[in-house]
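Colleagues,

For the teaching module next term, I've prepared a clean inverse folding example: a structure given as tokens, and then the sequence designed for it. I'd like students to try predicting residues themselves before seeing the answer, so please don't circulate the second half yet.
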């Protein structure tokens, strides 16, 4: 997992350029709040995906195949988790009836919050890994639990996640209005200052970002220990997420098996982390504090193959099921229509 360091100038320049791109994207939202068309959204998503692949190619020449492979595997993992995040964003937007023209701004705020939270967790994770190698046991166990929760979550758990304790408390204690006033969080009505529903939306988005940051950071540290690769993979996974939200639209509802693919990836990385912890073991009560030689190290390109394979299988299976359900519904509707016509004919006779 350990890599030779990349040139410092390359790392600084890369992060600076990526932050500039994110800033420009934010300014575009503030200057032109609108609902992007399918064509506009597709072009932007294509641009950001191409940018990530170009960056991987540059990293290949600057740092070698291992650096590039870890970046691509990390980016794909974070991207799949970001798509999962979009499901929750869709629920939040619908639940609080966010006007379509304001959804871009809400998504951009959500992306900024996610970036800040992930940056904090990346710094904390890097320090923990550097000082406590046994943290991989905890990361691995956490990812295995997360994978189980992802695969077998219930509707009741989803409902509870939508209305966190913090949001329920705010609704009860804080004076709010039912009407949106643009993107304003607080307005004055009849001489009284009240909060708009946008406050609740931002809290819901922020709490969701926190939960996903807790899941995503251990996952990518299972692929690479390089804070630079972790951070850039997260930035690329978040860039274009706003446009992806509008591009996918109803397609998100058709990806019914996506959570199984993500669960498999998280479980795989969890096992990989535990094996790595066993290989590097320093805990005195496990094998006398010595590394366990038979514990295999799973390579970057094996991880990349598993991640890509899991996402492709989950996506294809979802689309096949959705098409089958659509054909079944069409057949049932055709049968019902035929029955209705026969009934009318019998009545006429």
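(Answer key — instructors only)
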């Amino acid at each position: 997992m350990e890599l030779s360091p990349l040139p410092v100038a390359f790392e600084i320049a890369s992060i600076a350029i990526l932050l500039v791109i994110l800033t420009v994207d934010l300014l575009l939202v503030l200057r032109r709040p609108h609902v992007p068309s399918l064509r506009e959204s597709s072009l932007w998503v294509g641009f950001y995906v191409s940018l990530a692949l170009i960056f991987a190619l540059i990293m290949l020449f600057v740092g070698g195949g291992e650096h590039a492979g870890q970046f691509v595997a990390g980016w794909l993992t974070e991207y799949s988790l970001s798509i999962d995040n979009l499901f929750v964003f869709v629920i939040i937007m619908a639940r609080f009836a966010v006007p379509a023209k304001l959804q871009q701004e809400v998504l951009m705020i959500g992306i900024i919050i996610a970036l800040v939270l992930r940056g904090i967790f990346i710094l904390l994770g890097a320090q923990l890994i550097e000082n406590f190698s046994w943290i991989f046991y905890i990361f691995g166990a956490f990812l295995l639990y997360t994978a189980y929760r992802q695969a077998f979550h219930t509707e009741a758990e989803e409902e509870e996640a939508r209305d966190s304790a913090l949001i329920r408390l705010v609704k009860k204690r804080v004076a709010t209005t039912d009407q949106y006033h643009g993107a304003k969080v607080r307005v004055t009505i009849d001489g009284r200052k009240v909060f708009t529903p946008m406050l609740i939306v931002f809290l819901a988005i922020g709490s969701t970002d926190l939960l996903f940051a807790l899941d995503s950071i251990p996952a990518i540290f299972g692929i690479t220990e390089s804070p630079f690769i972790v951070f850039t993979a997260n930035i690329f996974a978040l860039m274009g997420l706003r446009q992806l939200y509008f591009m996918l639209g109803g397609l998100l509802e058709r990806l019914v098996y996506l959570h199984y693919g993500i669960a498999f990836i998280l479980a795989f990385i969890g096992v990989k982390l535990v094996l790595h912890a066993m290989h590097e073991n320093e805990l005195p009560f496990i094998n006398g504090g010595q590394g366990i030689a038979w514990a295999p190290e799973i390579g970057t390109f094996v991880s990349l193959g598993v991640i890509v394979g899991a996402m492709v299988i989950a996506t294809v299976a979802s689309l096949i099921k959705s098409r089958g359900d659509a054909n079944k519904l069409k057949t049932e509707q055709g049968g019902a229509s035929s029955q209705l016509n026969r009934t009318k004919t019998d009545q006429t006779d």
